[in-house]
Here is the input.
Amino acid sequence: MLENKATLSILHSAYAPKINGYLKTGNQLVSYYATGNPSEPNYTALGGADDWGITDDNQWNCGATGANVVQDLPTPDASQPGLAKSPFTATCAQATNHNIVGRPNLFNAITSVGLTWRTYSESMNPGQDFRTDSVADAAVTAQDNVYAPGTLAGNATAIGNAALTLPMPAGLYKTKHHPGMAYQNVRSAPEWKYSNRTMGDGQWDANLKNSTDYVIPANYDYDQLGTDLASGNVGNLNFLVPDQCDDMHSISVTGTVPGGAAGTASDCTGVANNVPTATGGAIITRGDNYVDFTVKRIQASPLWQNPQKRVAIVLMFDEGNATFNAKSPSVMNSCCGWSPANNTDCQSDQAERGRLLDGRYHHHQLHQRQSRPRRKYLRHPDQPGQRAQGRVGQRRLQPLLVRAHAARHVPTGRPRCRCLLHEPLEVHGGLRRYQHPEPAGICR
Here is the structure.
């Protein structure tokens, strides 16, 4: 999962040569759409085929009252033993509910048929609760990344300062970037702690052992992804979530050089979601390098090398430059026109390897494709008598295929697409799909 870049900022960019290499060798979904900005609705849609009316990045307990009250108590706030530095707020008054209770989702559906899932997240504080954001830790430091000439969009001179020491900043790990975080049924599931794991090779990983923010558990694994790739203990479905520097999102990262002068990290400063390819930015190259490292270590694993296994890699951005204007809901450039709590969806058939897929795709659609059972029927545990149509499992769309796509910016108007809207057509994993042929005013 990468962050906040439209296709027009990545495709053919000299700042992202490795991602562009994967785009050429795999399949590219050239019309893939986010729900719109910001992040949390997109990740929530990936986890449950709906954003449930969420339009902001607020905490998962915001607006959680009545039937939506938080059930996985206590919440991970600073009043709890061992969590004195937690930034989580115990109460969050807001009109829109962010704690989705009793709704079907991909995680529960997978578990209900004996399959497994994992979410691997980079740069968490050792010993932190997965349900809260990471915090700054002055005891964990790293040196600035330096890009030699020719390694960052043809730079003529080195970029970065090897003498700059950077303390670990707050917010490298964010709960808003977890596809299952908003779902009460997921956070309360027995496999929740077991299935949330670390992903290594972060800039600060080498010194995470020095962390003082929380008590570090015995035998803490700083790179469970690496361990699981070696042993084969990954899930049937795995979300890999880099930190907010490696995913191209950006946060403030500052430090000092010998003598005390302040400096800023070379490659975590943000650029616009639709930044021109000619302008680019070091953070894009940083994310490009992290993608390449991660893909290569997956491909080097016994799991990938085993021809009897069915494996695929999907490289995606949570959002590009799609928008929603609450004051002018008719002005949208997401697929079919994103409207909170009244979402539509786009569908298209898969193509053979090596092709540009120009059918309209959406975060909700990706969820539905993951929810089609192979040999077994997926059903939501709250709906035991309802069988899903189609097939899923540990499946790949093409043999050993890297699939890569970015959320696409639509400059004007709305794209042509088939909309799934309002009228029940079929159920996938307890998730109802809705179809309406070209409803007037939404899809044309």
Observations:
- Residues 282-299 form the longest helix (18 residues).
- The two ends are 30 Å apart (CA to CA).
